[in-house]
Structure formats: C-alpha cells, structure tokens
Amino acid sequence: MADTKSMGVVGSGQMGSGIAQLGAVHGIDVWLIDSDPDALARASKSISSSIQRLVSKAQLSQAAGTSALGRLRFTTNLEELCSADVIIEAIVESEDVKKKLFLELDKIAKRSAILASNTSSISITRLASVTSRPRQVIGMHFMNPPPIMKLVEIVRGADTSDETFNVTKALAERFGKTVICSQDYSGFIVNRILMPMINEAFFTLFTGIATKEDIDTGMKLGTNHPMGPLQLADFIGLDVCLSIMKVLHAGLGDSKYAPCPLLVQYVDAGRLGRKRGIGVYDYSKPSPRL
Ligand code: NAI
C-alpha cells in the first residue's frame, strides 16, 4: 500500500484549513486551493497561528512547526494538484458544485490519485459517478475542528475499492484519528443522528417552548454534552446545517427531516453562525454565559 506523500485540499474554509494543517504537521506536502484568494489569506493566517499555539504549548517543537509551514502551499490554481497522491475536497455542501469540481479533479489528478470528499451528508456514489475512477472515490469526513477532533468517518461509495479504503484509513490514523466506517446513505452515521437533534432544538426555539439559553443549558447539563445544540449549530455554520437537513429530507423521504423554518430564515438573513459573527447568538457581544 502506497504511503501518502503529497496531498491536495480544495476549499480553505473552517474544515479545509484544518485538514491542510494536519497533513503538513504529519510530514505531507500540501497544496491548499480555494477559488477565493481572501479565503486562502485567512487560511494561511489561521494555520500559522494554530501551529504557533501548538509550539507555545510544547505540543510541537519550533523546528517541526517551521517544517510544517514550509510544506504548505496556497493557490487558486487547481492544476497544481496534478501530482497529489490524495485530494480532499472541502468546498461548499452542494451536490451540484461538488460534482462540477470532481469532474475537473478527475481530469487533472494523476491516474493513481484518490479523490476524497469531506462532505457531511452528500452521496459519495453520486460524486464518484461523474468521474472515470469510482473505485478511487471515498468519503473522508473530519469533525470540526479537524486538528482537535479525534474522529474521521470514512464513507464507502458503491464502488470504492478496498485499496482506496485502506489508504484513506491509514492516512486518518497517521493523523492520530480513530476511524469509523459508514455505508453511503444520507447523513452517514454522525450527522444522521446529530442534525435532527439540532433541527429539533431550532423547532423548540421557533415554537416558543424555551429560550435559546435554556435549550442549550438543558442539553449541556441534562445530557452531558460539551456544547448546547444551538451553540454547536453556530459553530458548524447554519448554512452547513441547513444543507445537511435538506439532504436528509430529500434522501430519506420522511417529513420528520424537514428543516425548521427558523433555521431557513437565519440562513436567508446571512446569520450563518460564528464564521459571520452572528447566528443564533450574537458574537459581537460578550460571549453568552451558558
Ligand atoms: P466554509 O464555508 O468555511 O469553506 C468553504 C470554502 O470553499 C470557502 O473558502 C469557499 O471559498 C471555498 N469554495 C467554494 N466553492 C469552491 C470551488 N468550487 N473551488 C474551490 N473552493 C471553493 O465551509 P466548511 O465549514 O469548511 O465546510 C466545507 C465542507 O466540509 C462542507 O462539505 C461541509 O459539509 C463539510 N463539513 C463541515 C463541518 C463543519 O462543522 N463546518 C464538519 C464536517 C464537514
């Protein structure tokens, strides 16, 4: 089984920047790509400060931190991925946009390359279907934030080969992650269970049953979750939560997955959560005491 030496990450937002950091810290040459140069600039800054934090906490030596930063390159040019062993897609959660990218990646990537998606819910089989290499397409679903969270959920499409699975699993384990494996059905394991809970928290707020603070405190202290569901939704991004609910609703065909109108309205209003400074909570004010 070939060892991964070079990696491409497409999408340099919350997830892509963290995945790129993991690769660089674990000795892999990484190209980080985004269509938006400002997103790349933000990613470069956030990775540098994240690595600096690891150095100051003595979790990484200064030399290892400097080498990791030296292994990272940033560009808007997808063609740079022509020699990557593994390409991980972490762009917007839209099937049409992801398919368009997979079509392009299939043309650019070398024949042996694996194309992985960090999608939270979209069918790997359908993403694979637009490529000429469905055996080499797989879901590699990191949790947020990727450098910290210990889990990677690997999703096998209908045609994903054992070799692709083994290389992807080895890569996740090299990053120090525990791997779980899901069949390719809407929402996989984690979001199939998590997102209906978050959606239900929105319904609880929408129907006036409780305040946002009481909903979050209830779930934190009542069920020992580290974060309340509405806080977690802000952390994930309300646009990402809404996209996942739409995939669950369409894919599983049950009205219980219909997105809460309040979640839809917040996204329409641009209240996307922490990344925009406002979601369920307003982050321009002192942090909510929950
Ligand atoms: P984000 O909104 O922070 O970043 C997405 C980035 O992709 C943006 O910088 C955007 O400019 C870029 N982009 C969009 N279309 C592009 C294209 N065609 N080519 C190149 N770059 C493009 O989103 P986030 O939160 O990082 O999510 C990315 C993916 O990861 C989604 O599929 C999401 O479902 C998944 N995910 C998100 C988690 C979360 O907690 N936010 C957790 C696990 C997975």
Automatic annotation (TrEMBL):
Keywords: NAD, Oxidoreductase
This protein's name: 3-hydroxybutyryl-CoA dehydrogenase
Catalysed reaction equations from the record: a 4-saturated-(3S)-3-hydroxyacyl-CoA = a (3E)-enoyl-CoA + H2O; a (3S)-3-hydroxyacyl-CoA = a (2E)-enoyl-CoA + H2O
Residues the record lists as binding NAD(+): G11, S12, G13, Q14, M15, G16, D34, E93, K98, S120, N144, K275
Organism whose genome encodes this protein: Fagus sylvatica (Beechnut)
Domain 3-hydroxyacyl-CoA dehydrogenase NAD binding: 7-184
GO MF term (any one): NAD+ binding
PANTHER family reported in the protein's UniProt record: 3-HYDROXYACYL-COA DEHYDROGENASE FAMILY PROTEIN, 3-HYDROXYBUTYRYL-COA DEHYDROGENASE
